[in-house]
Amino acid sequence: METYDATIEDSSFENEDKTKKPSTKRFLRKNFHTYSTKCRAPIASLDCMDDFSSNSQQMLDQVLEMSESRKMTRYMASHSLANLPSAVTAGLRYRNLGKSGLRVPNIGLGLWSSIDEDSSEAIVTAALENGINLFDLSEAHNAKGEAELGRILKKNNVRRTSVIIITKIYWSTNSDERGLSRRHIIESVKASLGRLQTEYIDVVLLHKADPVCPMSELVRAMNHVINQGWVMYWGTARWSPSEIMEAYTNCKHANCITPIVEQTEYNMFCRDKPELHMPELYHKIGVGMMVWSAITTGSRVGRDDCAGLFAKSRFNRKSSTFSWCEENLALTEHTAMGGAEGREPSGEAPRTYGEKLRALHDLADTLNCTMSQLAVAWCLKNEAVNCVLLGATSVDHFKHHIHALQIVPQLTPAVMAQVERLLGNKPQRPPMLSTLAMRSQQAGNTVRIDMPGGAASGAGTPKPEGEASAEGEASTPAKESGRSFCDIQ
Question: What is this structure's pTM?
Answer without folding.
Answer: 0.66
